[in-house]
Amino acid sequence: EPEVTQTPSHQVTQMGQEVILRCVPISNHLYFYWYRQILGQKVEFLVSFYNNEISEKSEIFDDQFSVERPDGSNFTLKIRSTKLEDSAMYFCASSRGLAANEQFFGPGTRLTVL
Amino acid sequence: LAKTTQPISMDSYEGQEVNITCSHNNIATNDYITWYQQFPSQGPRFIIQGYKTKVTNEVASLFIPADRKSSTLSLPRVSLSDTAVYYCLVGIYNQGGKLIFGQGTELSVKP
Fold first, then answer.
1. Are the Cβ atoms of A31 and B41 closer than 8 angstroms?
2. Contact residues, chain A, for B3 at CB < 8 Å
3. Residue B99: how many CA atoms within 13 Å on its side-chain side?
4. DSSP helix/strand/coil, A54
5. Do the strands B33-38 and A75-79 form a parallel or antiparallel pair, or are they unpaired?
6. pLDDT digits (tens, 9 = 90+) for A62-90
7. How far apart are CA B36 and CA B33, in angstroms?
């Protein structure tokens, strides 16, 4: 069964450093998403991406964040200058269509900012 | 956007049937009801979706009354591995596909 993969599983970084979180969505999916979950809190939507551009973004997704699909298979989330409060699990998801029944989530990357 | 209300936590024992009810009084005519499951340290996973009456798949059943102001996720004969957080989501198609998660219901299955 196809699945969404994410690397790394755990990333530790110093405050102010740039991090890139990587995702490989399911191959025939067209819509891609990033969510985050701070420890003990609910899953929060960050951004959706379709046809090589951002479809929608939340208030969390400020200028420090960017997304890219550099090569047709990978989907990346970059945080330019990490803050302590960026520490969270980051989940990538993909779906066949915009209003598809099901979004498939990856296993997540745990980001720890020191 | 329809607000959803579900219990914060539930306890059950192995082999029992578990019913988790979600209230969504402001559900719109074209809103579907979707449930996701999240195990600790994993991403959410789609369980089931419905519009009205009853939907059943290999994992769960979803019961939706005629007024659609609530829905009940039914898990038959739970096992320890069903311990997870269960989220009820409504109206995702009106949100451009993005999923807005609430706090969910933390189900704990005991031996």
1. no
2. none
3. 37
4. strand
5. unpaired
6. 999 999 998 888 999 999 999 999 999 99
7. 10
**Hey, are the CB atoms on B34 and A42 less than 8 Å from each other?**
no
- Over residues A31-41, the pLDDT tens digits come to 999 999 999 99
Say if CB B18 and CB B107 are below 8 A apart: yes
Q: Which residue of B has its CA nearest to A10?
A: B41
**Contact state of A95 with B97 under an 8 Å Cβ cutoff:** yes
Q: Report how many Cβ contacts below 8 Å link chain A to chain B.
A: 61
CB burial readout B8-29, b (16+ within 10 A) else e:
eebebeeeeebebbbbbeebee
CA distance B44 to B85: 9
**CB-side neighbour CA atoms (13 Å) of B43:** 26
Yes or no, beta carbons of A45 and B98 under 8 Å apart: yes
Task: Indicate which of B38, B49, B59, B99 best probes the interface with A, i.e. most A CBs within 10 Å of its own CB.
Answer: B99
